[in-house]
Design goal:
mainly alpha
């Protein structure tokens, strides 16, 4: 039962990262993206290449987490560490 709960949590984290991918790669300069990140149209246009790079990174994290559901705990732990590490260094 605990393993199922852990897998559900990993799937939730993957789903969040897929949503981040959509926001950063496709909606960054659209009204929802600008409102979400509090940006003017000019700033959104100027930073769009950076956002697309971030979105791709989030997509790889989501893919790795979903792969981990089938590949095993070591893969899940690695990709969860990849999710946590940038958050710990962003002070």
């Amino acid at each position: 039962m605990l393993a199922i709960a852990a897998d559900v949590a990993v799937i939730l984290v993957a789903a969040l990262h897929l949503w981040f991918l959509v926001l950063e790669m496709f909606l960054w300069d659209k009204p929802l993206g600008r409102r979400t990140f509090g940006m003017s149209p000019e700033k959104a246009a100027a930073t769009k290449p950076l956002a697309m790079n971030q979105g791709l990174y989030n997509g790889f994290l989501a893919a790795g987490l979903l792969w981990g559901i089938f590949a095993g705990d070591d893969v899940k732990i690695f990709f969860l560490a990849c999710v946590i590490a940038p958050g710990c260094s962003a002070r």
